[in-house]
């Protein structure tokens, strides 16, 4: 029996889902009674009933996946293609070059130190030696002035909670100092490397580490050679325990910038602390959260700030906090989006997005144009960090069909040389990519990147993944992965839609899909799927929707609104209960994009899009593989649990609804390589199988 015939012959009873207890729980919002029949699944996964239910769901899921012919072939090919030498963008300090290396054979990437030219490298920090299971990840490192110490933070099983340690760079040995219960890897060595600043939240109650709401943040200071219990508070907002604090240090490490925001505010205030004058009140550089303010560089009382004040696509402004003269826009707003600015080698390095493709422009400190950085094509760049006195910096370039290459850039000569170019175990010349534009429901022109094998036939037969995010001002740009080449070698198309809510076209593009306007992002994604079908890349049955985190919400919302749009849905670590997202960990901080159910108009907007609440009984939804992890404390797994339980109860027809819960893995960051690839393999196998396609029995260089 062919895969299509088998799929059509199946009925709902062919998959026996675990019996999931329903409860008569309701909440009242603004006089509206809302049912929440799976509230009990919000309990920590350590609760026996929840754990037993997850185990039962995983048993069904992996039993189904194991029955897909050649599923294992996909994983082994993903592993083979990921086995190559890649390095991260280096940083430079005191004659030493620091960079990460990933050979594709280890669970976690390794940190190296080399000389000024990047030669004579040696291992400085290998997290693979810290945990035989590979679930300890280094989330942040910081090299102090003078290059004596490396400060680093590790997390366990993908959690946002982290532990700080400090290592002598010369000897490779750790000092006794350890700081626990910090979060998000926010920390910096002080000017003399005699201690460090870090962000912390109160230690959670027993069993609440992965669900407790984050509040009462503090910036603490730890002095070397002391106990954590002796650490001093460097900054806190006692009068606003629910506000968030995001600290950073300037180049001199004598000044701390503080980006401060209320959960409901779209933007942050920007304050500053002179660390040479402890006890002083902070400077309120920008005390009205009316635009995005990001510090770039400080010289005395002069501050270069990237911002969107009356400039939706960004600019760089120079202001003086002592003289208080009128701020000067040294790099005015452009028709393109200013994504980021650094000050290196006496130049402002401005990274722009031109229809979501990278362009890099150089300016003097007062804004005189000093050329552009020549890039290989229409791709994405990262890097260009360093100090004002550095003669060179590093950056990476990647596109949809070419892997990441790292360059060293000479600022005086305006010239790039290759620092590292990967040698892949797959011939990338057989792939191609392009950018297209489609029209959304309200007439908005939206870009999308496509990648596929050369010689593709537009006959609707191609299995196609449509990926999206659409939130928090985060742009979707051209990017490459060897895992995608496996999909393309199975005849697949990979599409990345740059929908509203992201940062592709600046503040207006972002704000066009926040709070009561979130539906615009979903309309864009629906239009992207319709475009792919109308242009005959695929049919509705051979289209899969994919997204993670806010993108998981995107997939959940679209599949509930348009269950006929795609044959497969792959929501990962998604925010699925839009009426309770702000009750867990960092969730309240998302109110800036989502809105709050406590506000009347925003409640109705959230209720209309909430995937969990908009599933309807006796409806035929796409074949769905919901993925999450047991220790995800960013988007807590109960979102996926409740959504999967409700979807299984509502689904009719042959399409399966499965929940795949990874153990000892968090929101995604720091996940061991093979674990991450196994999840991708299952997503690909599930999608191909439910599109009625076959997985090849083997891959080869010409497959």
In short:
18% of the residues lie in helices and 33% in strands. It has 703 residues and is of the alpha+beta class. The protein has a domain at 3-80 and 426-690: 3-Layer(aba) Sandwich (Rossmann fold), CATH 3.40.50.1820.
Number of strands: 38
Query: What is the rounded Rg?
Result: 25 Å
C-alpha termini separation = 25 Å
Range of strand content: 25-35%
> What is the CATH architecture term of the domain at 3-80 and 426-690?
3-Layer(aba) Sandwich
What is the count of helical runs? 11
The CATH homologous superfamily of the domain at 3-80 and 426-690: Alpha/Beta hydrolase fold, catalytic domain
Question: How is the main sheet built?
Answer: 8 strands, mixed
Structural class: alpha+beta
Spatial ordering of strands, largest sheet = 31-32-34-33-35-36-37-38
Note the quaternary state here: single chain
Give the C-level CATH assignment of the domain at 3-80 and 426-690: Alpha Beta
Average predicted local confidence, pLDDT: 93
What is the 3D shape?
Answer: globular
**Which stretches are low in confidence, meaning pLDDT under 50 for 5 or more residues running?**
1-13
Structure description:
With 703 residues, the protein is of the alpha+beta class. It has a domain at 3-80 and 426-690: 3-Layer(aba) Sandwich (Rossmann fold). It has an eight-stranded mixed beta sheet with strand order 31-32-34-33-35-36-37-38, with helices on both faces. A seven-stranded antiparallel beta sheet has the order 8-9-10-11-12-13-14, with no helix packed on it. α3 (71-82) crosses α11. It is globular, with a radius of gyration of 25 Å.
